[in-house]
Amino acid sequence: MKPIIEISGLEKIYNPTKVAVHALRGIDLTINEGEFSAIVGPSGSGKSTLLNLIGGLDSPSAGKIKIDGTDISNLSENELIEFRLRKIGFVFQAYNLIPVLTAKENVEFIMLLQNSSKQAREERAMNLLKAVGLHAEVDRRPVEMSGGQQQRVAVARALASKPAFVLADEPTANLDSASAENLLDIMEQLNRDEKITFLFSTHDARVVKRARRVVTLEDGLISTDISNAK
């Protein structure tokens, strides 16, 4: 299988000149194309730090992160912005939709930044919103949608750029049980049918149950890494 994420010797230290906090203490991890994996662990174990580093939203104190063969630590800030735009899809706990835009416009926005044509943007946005069950809500703004619907828009937006993989940070945390299960159904189907790679950071047992690989962090280290073929 093709590696999408390759991490070696990854460390993250906060306040290195004062009271140092070692968030990550030397992580080695490879995520392959098509995986549906979850990173779990107690609060403070380093889950969100690891996802932020993989997503290029923060810089490591030591170690390397390769995304689809590119060492992102060697990229300039502008190169990293462009790389994230084209290679990484993000699904955030807080949705992070643009309030004044409709569902379709939110999904189209990242393609607009990529200079895609109007026709290509509209066609892909409509197809993605249909895939997540929101073809009837394309003209609604976030305030007019439920939390579950907003999170499905966020999934569609994450896929709009045709990324190498999708990072999902606590994507079900603000959802009721029915909405969470529905969202997981959609992401699992996208993973199986379109081979889209998903990497979750989660406390949610429902996500862990669906994951086919579960990596547990404790005190900034990987304590277990268990694959469960389903």
Describe this protein's structure:
With 230 residues, the chain is α/β, with parallel strands linked by helices. Helices cover 36% and strands 27% of the residues. Helix 3 packs across helix 4, helix 3 packs parallel to helix 5 and helix 5 runs parallel beside helix 6. It is globular. The model has no long low-confidence stretch (mean pLDDT 93).
Core attributes:
10 strands; six-stranded mixed beta sheet; about 230 residues; Rossmann fold
Task: Report the strand count.
Answer: 10
Mean pLDDT: 93
Q: Report the helical percentage.
A: 25-40%
Coarse morphology: globular
SSE string, helices as H and strands as E: EEEHEEHEHHHEHEHEE
Unreliable stretches (pLDDT < 50, length at least 5) are none
- What share of residues are in beta strands? 25-35%
In DSSP terms (H or I, runs of 4 or more residues), the helix count works out at: 7
Overall number of domains: 1
Report, as a whole number of angstroms, the end-to-end distance.
17 Å
The first-level CATH class is given as Alpha Beta
Fourth CATH level, the homologous superfamily: P-loop containing nucleotide triphosphate hydrolases
Structural class: alpha/beta
Report the major sheet.
6 strands, mixed
- What is the CATH-assigned architecture? 3-Layer(aba) Sandwich
Rg, alpha carbons: 17 Å
As for the CATH topology, it is: Rossmann fold
Strand order of the largest sheet: 6-7-8-3-9-10
